Amino acid sequence: MTEEAIFFDCQGERLLGILHHARAPICEIGVVLVVGGPQYRVGSHRQFVLLARALASTGIAVFRFDFRGMGDSSGEPRDFEQISDDIRSALDTFTAKVSGLRGAVLWGLCDAATANAFYALGDERVVGQIALNPWVRTSEGEAQAFIKHYYLKRVLSRDFWRKVFRMRFDALTALGDFFSKLGDSRAESMQSAGDDLPLPERLRVSQIGFGKPTLLILSGQDLTAREYDDRVAEAPDWQDWLRSEEVTLHRLAEADHTFSRAAWRDQVADWSRDWVLGLSDRI
Hints:
Distance between the termini: 25 Å
Shape: globular
Order of helices and strands: EEEHEHEHEHHHHEHHEH
Structural class: alpha/beta
CATH superfamily of the largest domain: Alpha/Beta hydrolase fold, catalytic domain
Strand content: 15-25%
């Protein structure tokens, strides 16, 4: 099992990727690990390095890279809705360097999961997706999730009422924040009919339209995951997709957004490995 640094081109910019060659026997499905931003190829608490090495040690080749404007890649910084060309160039490089692949899985956390969903519809080489805590944030959605999953939980907690009775609770500040969030949650969208669909709607269309297997992993202690749950709950066809045979759903009840503890990180790696190896057997 070796690691190889590779420079490759994307729209005239020089990108850096790390190819993790797989230990034999080699799985015929590889993984392209797409990084969310602002972040680079190593990941928070070295998550992406450790994940790539874990998968490669079991026979799954992995390619992780810096998209334009991040890490050691040249170009102007860009957000997750502007990296489709970067993903395509990474896939081109990966499939050219690793012989015998029948397809690739796109792996992404947060806005990278959403970027992958947008991209995957247009590339037949993508045979599956692994999406962790997909990003669907709007100002209204964030406010609704904060009220539903933070304020309600806090009001029901004993610690909250201890602070109230001991006069250690700043009621005016808390009420002001609550009503600010409430106003945001009720705000009307300023988008005109001619604009693109809102982000949650675009992700809904992309995930349902993919039509191939998806592994979805959601953290229990993460507002982003709760926002995703809330948006899915509003759309019957999205709920149907989530319950379909195409989707494998895992929840890690105690985990935070980036799965920062070793036990959480290792569980994600195990789920990812088993799912990719199972996918390779099915296609």
